[in-house]
Design brief:
- With 165 residues, this protein is an alpha+beta fold.
- Helices cover 17% and strands 13% of the residues.
- The chain has a five-stranded antiparallel β-sheet with strand order 4-3-2-1-5, with no helix packed on it.
- The protein is elongated.
- The C terminus is likely disordered.
């Protein structure tokens, strides 16, 4: 009789141990922010990118932009923004929206966060230097006449090194 009780206790113990082990949670990084995303925002679903008037869906790793009369979801920005540097561009973190259509507020976002908008300074999660993809890589000072960078004619310091002698 004692052996039956011991066997029953052992079976209950083994079953409960297996049940406890089965309750281990799995943490998978689906929908983790991209390396070019701003530091400090873990529970967010979307960014708005004012310079390109597009959204980025973190969970689905897709850009959402308007084209051809409709909102398009794509892994890439449209080709007209192929030289856009996501690391340097400002990202508006949409903390207050968790639905499926962030563009439902586009009219407000476009006015409030106009092209060229810069809010508080941002630091990217990752480093642009460690990013090997050529997609969205800035073309630097090539063929754009160096507009807006203070170097007229593209000569900078007239080829005289770094100015320190």
């Amino acid at each position: 009789m004692k052996t039956l009780k011991l066997i029953a206790v052992a079976i209950v113990f083994l079953v409960s141990t297996n049940a406890i082990q089965a309750q281990v949670s799995v943490n998978v990084n689906i929908g983790s922010p991209p390396a070019w995303g701003p530091v400090g925002y873990s529970a967010v679903d979307y960014y708005y990118l004012p310079d390109v008037e597009a959204y980025y869906d973190i969970r689905n790793t897709q850009f959402i932009y308007f084209g051809g009369g409709q909102w398009i979801r794509s892994r890439n920005l449209p080709t007209r923004y192929r030289n856009y540097n996501l690391y340097n561009g400002y990202k508006v973190v949409l903390n207050d929206y968790h639905g499926a259509r962030p563009y439902s507020n586009f009219k407000n976002h476009k006015v409030k966060y106009y092209k060229g908008y810069k809010g508080k300074p941002q630091k990217s999660i990752g480093s642009y230097r460690n990013h090997n993809s050529k997609a969205y890589k800035s073309n630097g000072n090539k063929s754009n006449g160096n507009k807006g960078n203070g170097n007229k004619g593209g000569k900078g310091n007239n080829g005289h090194g770094n100015g320190k002698h």
